[in-house]
Amino acid sequence: AIVASFFADGNELPGPLTVWFLPSFILGLVILLIFCLGVASLVAYCATHFPDLTHLTEIGMQMLFFLTPVIWPRKILLENDGMARGYTAYLLYNPLVSVVDVVREPIMKGDFASFNSYPIALGSAVAL
Questions:
Q1: The whole model's pTM is what?
Q2: What's 87's DSSP letter?
C-alpha cells in the first residue's frame, strides 16, 4: 500500500533505482567476477612456487587500493577548482580504474558507466 501510494503521487524511486540499474549492475558484477577469478588464479598458481607471495600480495593489494580511485570519483582527481592535477595519464593507463567504474557507476547513478570503461575492464579481466 505504501509503494502504491508513493507511485500514485507521481514520485520516482529514490537513489539509483532506474530502468538501467539492474542490467548495468549485473554486467559490472560479471566483469568484476571474471577479473577477480583471473587474479585469484594467477596468485594461487604463483604462490605454490613462491611461498612469500601471499604476504607480498597483502601489501600489494593495499598499495593498489590507495593507487586506484576506489573511495573518491575520477572527477576529483582530474581537476580541483578548474586546475588540472596531473592524474590524467595515470587514470588513462590504469586498468583497475575501469573495473571500479563499471561497478561503481550503476550503484551511484543507476546507469551504465562510460562506453570506454567496459572494453578496458573486460579486456583486462579476460587477459588475466
A1: 0.74
A2: -
Report the phi/psi class of residue 94: left, alpha or beta, with left for phi > 0 and alpha for psi in -120 to 50.
Answer: beta
Q: What's the pLDDT score for residue 3? A: 47
Are the C-beta atoms of residues 113 and 39 closer than 8 Å to each other? Answer: no
Total residues found in the chain within this entry = 128
At 79, give phi and psi (nearest 5°): -150, 150
Q: In one letter, which amino acid is 62?
A: Q
* 6 φ/ψ angles, rounded to the nearest 5 degrees: -70, -45
Residue whose cell numbers read 562510460: 114
**Alpha-carbon torsion 102, 105, 111, 117, what sign?**
negative
CA distance 95 to 34: 14
User: pLDDT by residue (tens digit) across 46-63?
Assistant: 999 998 998 999 999 888
